[in-house]
Amino acid sequence: MTEQVEVDLSSFSPKGDVLVIAEHILGELQPVTLELLGAGRILSDKMERKLKCLVMGYNLGDIPQKLVEYGADEVYVADHEELEKYRTLPYRRVVCDFLETQSEPPHTCLLGSTTTGRDLAPRIAAHFDTGLTADCTELDIGPYEHKSKVDPTKIGLYPNCLYAIRPSFGESLKARILGPWKNPQMATTRPGVMTPLKPDSKRKGKIEKITVNLKPEDHRLVVVETVREIAKGVKLTEADVIVAGGYGLGTADGFDVLKDLAATFENSALGASRKVVDLGWIPYQHQVGQTGKTVRPKLYIACGISGAIQHRVGMSKSGTIIAINKDPDSPIFKFAHHGIVGDIYQIIPEMIKQFKEIQSGRGVKEVVGSH
Amino acid sequence: MSGSLNIFVLVKQVPDQGSKAGLNPDGTIDRAKAKRMLNPFDRYALQAALHAKKCYGGRVTAISMGPPPAVEVLLETLEHGVDEAFLLSDRRLAASDTLATAYALFRTVSYVGKPDLVFCGLQTTDGDTAQVGPQLAERMGLPQITYCEDFSIENNKVHGRRIIEGGYQKVVSEMPLLVTVANSYHPLEYKSFRGAWKVQRLARNEEELKKFIHTIDLDIVKADPDRTGLKGSPTIVAATEKVGELGGSCKMHEGQSVETLVQSVIKESQLEQFFVA
Predict the structure, then answer these.
(1) What is the pTM for the complete model shown?
(2) Structural domains of chain B ordered from first start
(3) What is the domain-level CATH number for residue A63?
């Protein structure tokens, strides 16, 4: 019964603030941190708690001030040479030490679903034996009554629970995941999903340095080099036009056709569904959706993509969505703006042909004239 | 290399999402009816483990947790050249979340031995969390390389390359180490002739099979049942809801020919504005 301490209701405290763990790459604050502050602000206001933010790095400059401007009430700064580049163990040490020195653990602890957040958050959750929900698309605070008798110590009415909401396995369900028995209740959210506050340079907040005590075993892994490949093509998240392919392409070579289509657009990039990334048709970096990137281009052309919720959450905020699929019952036609039922390999070459005609000024009259 | 490597690879059997079998009308999955497969991400982990053995010597042990049919994916790993496999199977594990799963796997790994390298897939296709690998590393007190897309071993240290947003990091780590392998790593090679032959032989002889695939339970690995299953899981799925229909205002384009169809789309979606000047 030694393990039961953590679920004993008498030790359950509905107190605690909301904590956001900030993320930056080489001093460049990641947008997801500002989004988390926006989401965290709503949660903390709802519970009338404070919004805290922990930032780790070296020579952080005006980053702590920026975190206040974006909504944090208190910013805790771990500034140390060894924290310049993200590494699991030193960052894990700082977060765990920080949480252990708090008289009250935070109610909620939020990180981004990035390669950093997804690396760090599970370590923190495992260390504190607390719950963690990955890749949330919505967060909220609300009551929950636990009635299941499997574990009688968990039965009760919990007034303030973190609702961590994410698309679940299958086509069209979302799951509300809760863990009110232990604080902090942890979640990661996908970049691009939450809305940041407008920065307010007049906002006042407390900025406090915290001490960093790393141990020799925290240095078992070292970072030799950090390379950012910004120059290599248009970044998926910054493209105006995305041409995306799914299993309906039938073959990896289908992406050659999509590449030709993408080339007719300014500032365009190739996207993909997870299924085809799993199959190795195109690298992971092109994946759009729940476990890939969240994008909101001006134009999204989905070719042979069925539009399962995992894909939809990554692209539904695109300006114009055009879907081409041979199955008229595909879910994608429920949320695309323009739909074509048909064979990709007939439609896309025709699109490219007509686009080129329009671009070269020829054929414009015919297109207009046909109506 | 001094000595040979003790390499573990963790694999999971997941429902095949490509097949419609077992899909309930409401979108949930009926795991009993669904077709099963090796988690696609684990194929990269398996390739990494076999690559490490081939290049640096050693032994690969596959570990899985799941109901008895999960033996199928362990047989598959043997066909690819894994030396030995363990399946943790116990009714008390039902409804484990990632934390409870990581604990059960931690007990299993500790029972099986002392690995130099533990390879996991980046995530599973049925849970999508990418949490179990790092949570296991935390339980084991190991450093980790997540999102690893390539690695080599020099002077007893692992040189790895991991994906970060818009780029990559090169890292060097001591062993023992846990690695989660991204799907930009090399795809799994074909089954080895020897492996396939061995599995064929084992399939005919249950006694012989038991020497290569060991089915174990929570008592054998000395796991506290209260830390597994529903009881050991700090999170629960409190509710699922149908996602509301979005928009429903999709303009379906029809046309006599592909040509007129495309003309209609170009005009109505005002595509000209996006073209290369």
Answers:
(1) 0.82
(2) 5-227 (3.40.50.620)
(3) 3.40.50.620
